[in-house]
Amino acid sequence: MKKVLVVFVLVVSLCSLSLAGDESTKETKAADRAQAAADVLNEIQGAPDSGIPQEVLGSAECVAVVPSMLKGGFVFGAKYGRGLASCRTPKGWSAPAFFTVKGGSFGLQIGGQAVDLVMLIMNEDGMKHLLSSKFALGADASVAAGPVGRHAEGDTDWKMRAQVLTYSRARGVFAGLTLNGAQIKQDKDSTREFYGRMVSFPASLKGEVEAPAAANVFLTTLAKWAQEAAK
Questions:
Q1: By three-state DSSP, how is residue 199 classified?
Q2: Tally: H helices and E strands in the chain
Q3: Exposed, middle or buried by CB within 10 Å (0-12, 13-18, 19+), for 195?
C-alpha cells in the first residue's frame, strides 16, 4: 500500500511539474512576441534613410506589430500571423492587446521568407474598429500602404484616406504594403497567457489594466520612437 502511495505521489508531482513547464513556455511565447515586436520597431526606425515617417508615427493613435508573419512560402496571400498592439492614452501607451491576422492579400509578391507586418491606426474611426477586437481591413476599416522615409511633408494622401496604414519588411527591405481582406481578431489564448486572465481589447487599449513587466520592452521602445517623432 505504501509503495502504491509513493508511486501515486511521484506521478502527481511529475504531472504538476509538466503543467508548470507548459505554462512557463506559453508565457515565454507571449513575452517573446513583445520582445520581437520591439526589435522590429528598433530595426525599422533605426535605419538611416528609411522607416516610418516621423509625421506619420507622430499622428498614429495605435501601433500594431506582427513579427515574423508567415514562416513559409506564399504568393499574393497572407495566411496567418500573431501580433500585439498598443494605443495612446492620457497616461502613455496602453498595455498590449494580442491579436491574430488571417487571410488577406498582399499588394506585392513575396516568397519563402518571414515577413514583419506593421499597422498604424491613424484616427478615431480606425481605433473604434480595433477596439471592437474583430474587423476586416479594407471592408470595415479603410487601409492603404504607408509612406516610407524620414519625412512625409509633401505626401498628404495618408492623412486623408486611410484609417489604417500598413507596412511590411522582408529580407531587410521595408516598404508600404497594400493589405486588403485580412481579418483582425483578438488572440484570446495569448491574452490569457500574458495576463493570466481574459482581458478585453477596450480594457487593455484604453489603459484600464496595468501592463505586465514583460510588456515593458515593447512599450518603452514604442514610446521612444513616438517621442522622437514628436520632436
A1: coil
A2: 7, 12
A3: buried
Q: Exposed e or buried b for every residue in 72-89, given b needs 16+ CB within 10 A?
A: eeeeeebeebbbbbbbbe
What pTM does this model have? 0.81
Strands 92-93 and 164-170: unpaired
Residue-level pLDDT at 46:
86
DSSP character for 137? B
Only one residue has cell 515574423, namely 68
* Model confidence pLDDT, tens digit, residues 92-141: 999 999 999 887 666 554 555 678 889 999 988 888 888 887 878 877 78
In which element (H, E) is residue 121 found?
A: strand 115-121
Residue 192 has pLDDT above 70, yes or no: yes
Instruction: Sort 196 into a burial class: Cβ within 10 Å, 0-12 / 13-18 / 19+.
Output: exposed
What DSSP designation does 126 have?
A: H
